[in-house]
Structures are given as structure tokens and as C-alpha cells.
Write a structure and sequence with these properties.
Elements lengths: L1 H20 L2 H14 L13 H8 L5 H16 L6 H20 L3 H10 L4
Length: 122
């Protein structure tokens, strides 16, 4: 039993380190997975025209400006000629953490365990 728990904790630390090094596109992909895992916006992939607006409606405390900026940066990173700036990369990571924390608050205890140990969103 000890080895299983240790393995889960080591896996968690590895995943958290990878997220710190991830670029904005990877953070956004992980964000979409987190939103779907929470049962929110399952019909959205993040590329829809109204995704930013729907994200604002689904996540309490997220402003329209933040949501639009997040989606804009990720779209620029995916389809633009210029890579995002370090500031934009940092904004996406900060938005990811904020959104996942807000979603986490409304989950049942069981889903919270999944979020932290299985999916490692936080």
C-alpha cells in the first residue's frame, strides 16, 4: 500500500513539473481536459467562436477580458506567425490555474481527489 501511495505522489510531482514547463498551447489543452473532467462545456473543444463567452458563463469570477485574452493568445500561438511573448505565456498559465481552482471549488470530495491525484490539474 505504501508503494502505491508513493508512486501516486511521485507521478503527481512529475506532472506538476511538466505543467510548469508547458507552453500555452499545452496549458490550454490541459484546461479543456479539466473543464470536461468537471462536467462543464463537454460539447466544446475550445476552438468554437463562442468558447470564450461560454467559459465566462461556466467559471465564476472569470472576466470576459481574461477569457478573450486567453483564447486570443492560444489562437495566436497555434495559427500566428509569431510565437507568444513570455508575458502572454505567463498569462495563460495564470489563467489556467485560476480557472482550474474555481472549477475545483464546486466539485464533490470524490471529484476533488480525482482532480488532484488522477488528473493532476492542481
Amino acid at each position: 500500500m505504501f508503494f502505491i501511495a508513493a508512486g501516486i505522489l511521485v507521478r503527481r510531482q512529475v506532472k506538476l513539473r511538466r505543467m510548469k514547463k508547458a507552453d500555452c498551447r499545452r496549458c490550454f489543452s490541459k484546461l479543456i481536459t479539466a473543464v470536461h473532467a468537471a462536467g462543464v462545456l463537454r460539447e466544446y473543444s475550445g476552438q468554437e467562436i463562442d468558447f470564450a463567452e461560454r467559459l465566462v458563463q461556466a467559471v465564476q469570477g472569470l472576466s470576459r477580458e481574461e477569457s478573450r485574452k486567453l483564447v486570443g493568445i492560444v489562437n495566436q500561438a497555434a495559427f500566428g506567425a509569431e510565437p507568444p511573448s513570455e508575458e502572454d505565456e505567463a498569462f495563460v498559465k495564470q489563467a489556467y490555474r485560476k480557472i482550474v481552482q474555481r472549477i475545483y471549488r464546486n466539485l464533490s470530495w470524490y471529484r476533488k481527489l480525482q482532480f488532484r491525484l488522477f488528473y493532476v490539474f492542481l
